[in-house]
Each structure stands twice: as C-alpha cells, then as structure tokens.
Design a protein that fits this description.
158 residues; alpha+beta; Aminopeptidase; 6 helices; binds coenzyme A
Length: 158
Amino acid sequence: MIRDGDASDADVVAEIAVEAWQPIYAHSRETLGAELFAHLHTDWEAEKARQVRQACEDDTRGSVLIATVGDVVVGFVSYYLHAAPLGVIGNNAVRPEYQGRGIATQLYEATLDRMRAAGMRYARVTTGGDPSHAPARRAYEKVGFGAELPSVTYHREL
Ligand SMILES: CC(C)(COP(=O)(O)OP(=O)(O)OC[C@H]1O[C@@H](n2cnc3c(N)ncnc32)[C@H](O)[C@@H]1OP(=O)(O)O)[C@@H](O)C(=O)NCCC(=O)NCCS
C-alpha cells in the first residue's frame, strides 16, 4: 500500500535510508580510499537521516510517500513540487529485505501521479552512474525516465 507520509514517519524513514544506503557508501569508500572518504562523507548516516527526516517533518521542504506491507513500513520516496513545471524526485529507498519486489516501481508511479495532479509537466531524478546505483538507474528507467545527462566526478591523489 502507498500512502502520504508525515512527521510520524520520520524515524522509520531515517532507519530505512541509513540501512539502504550502506552498499552505496561502501562502494564510495572502496573507490575513494578510507582517508578521502572520511573527509568527504564524515557521518553520512546522520546527514542522510537529517535529509529524509526534514522531508517528513517540514511540508514546505518536500513531500513523502510511504510504502507499507501489512504494518511494516518498507520504503519511501521524497519529492518536490517547487520548481514547476518540473517535479523532482529526491531521496528514496526500499528496505533491503523487501527490494526486488516492485515496491520502488509502485512508489515512483504514485509520485509521478502526484506530480501530474499538481500540474507538473516534467519529472527529474538524479542518481549515480557507478555500479552501486545500478538498481536505482534500472528502477527509474522502468517507470519511463530517459533523456539522461550523465556526468563523471574524478579524483586523484596529489
Ligand atoms: C533503488 C531501489 C529503491 C529500488 O527498489 P526496489 O523496490 O528493489 O525496485 P523494484 O523492485 O521496483 O525494481 C525496479 C527495477 O529495478 C531492478 N532492480 C532492482 N534491484 C536491482 C539490482 N540489485 N540490480 C539490478 N536491477 C535491480 C528490478 O529488477 C526492476 O527492473 P525489472 O522489472 O526490469 O527487472 C532500492 O534498490 C534501494 O533502496 N537502493 C538503495 C538506495 C537508492 O539507491 N536509492 C535511490 C537513490 S538515487
């Protein structure tokens, strides 16, 4: 089931986000090395939790949809309507043990419906081009996202 989220979802959404992003940050750490990773992503868990909490708690800073299976909150998506006619999908994740069951697909479809209902004509989402973001890229393409403009961030030791 998909429903609108609110401040009461902030804790569980933050918990899902921190769990679901572990492999992504593990990949970054492996790619960048421990020292540069620590410099760039100190306390990423707290920062990610802060971002998703804010979307739940502050209506002026974004909206959230929540996916549930029975009583369990299994996923969320944040989205933004302040750049009309462009709706923007932000942080989103599905609990690792519930991934691969079409839950993100349902969340994104519901988000696109909300955007259409709010008068948006386009939707945008930004994600990583590295292997840890392959599930996200596939999931976005599955709901019709294309017209991609990739970029690459390089690093080197001095
Ligand atoms: C991205 C994410 C939300 C997808 O959630 P999900 O519920 O597993 O996605 P769905 O089950 O709806 O799958 C959608 C498509 O992605 C594919 N997919 C899902 N997991 C995949 C994986 N590990 N590798 C490759 N493709 C994958 C599915 O197979 C499906 O495509 P298909 O129907 O052609 O087979 C989830 O992997 C996640 O939480 N990732 C970590 C956080 C993240 O990356 N968020 C997005 C940041 S931009």
